[in-house]
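Quarterly update, task 2.4: S-adenosylmethionine-bound model.
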Amino acid sequence: MTDFEKIKEGAKKVWAGFAPLEHITGTAAPRLIKFANINSGQRVLDVACGTGVVALSAARNGATVVGADLTPELLERAKENNTIFDLDVEFHESDVESLPFKNEEFDVVLSQFGHMFAPRPDVALSEMLRVLKPGGTIAFSTWPPELFMGKFFQIISKYSDPLPEGFEPPPLWGNVDTVIKRLSPTSHQIHFDRDKILSPGLSTGHLLNMFEKGAGPLSKLVEKLSTNPKVLKSLRNAILEILSMYFENNYLRQDYLLTKAIKK
Ligand SMILES: C[S@@+](CC[C@H](N)C(=O)[O-])C[C@H]1O[C@@H](n2cnc3c(N)ncnc32)[C@H](O)[C@@H]1O
């Protein structure tokens, strides 16, 4: 197994418990759908779809939608959500770096806080564009490195084993200059916007607890450090410190970047 295959196997375990946080990412889904101008008659793919919050929101707008994700547990919940909505979204277990779809099959390819976690941005992007028609829209929401979630992931990497060579830090997908550099060879009309998610929580301690339970990379790290209370305490303090910077009126403010572009 290559380093990247090992990362994907690890990622499935890391994200398996993410479903309870769908009520948070779910609040951002309609924003991405509006930003990407999703409407009926379009064939839409949502990559790294998790429990399907974006895919199902696109289907509610009348699009024909397919969702794809690496993690079987999340796809189970996505199918349950599909039944609750009484929609007809197809869900596939698949890696964004190797999509099981034909060339130029979709009018729109979306990803919300998803494709950014694939280890090789160039491979993930070339797959997303391969399955997109020329003139089609690619649109995604990502966490900028300098804001809450970007800092959260920086702390996690500081306390984790070093990543293999070639693994690009996910929040680089939230940096405008990097996104322009990555998209401009294949796409044009690149547009950006910003928005925020407000996650309710009674205190920074409550929010830490919520992320420890549902945010895969942190849950796994806390599990690993359970035999090392001193380091675990220092990790928790570092996260509490950034939580307090973005916590106001019993909400955590998580700002994000929206990007859309047209495939040349
Ligand atoms: C933060 S969750 C976001 C899920 C969903 N898009 C949402 O907005 O709720 C990150 C998702 O990326 C998926 N993921 C991570 N690496 C992936 C890969 N290489 N291919 C496909 N999905 C991947 C995880 O399984 C997880 O569902």
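Highlight for this quarter: The pocket of S-adenosylmethionine is lined by residues 8, 11, 15, 18, 22, 25, 48-50, 53-54, 69-71, 74, 95-97, 112-114, 117-118 (CB under 6 Å).
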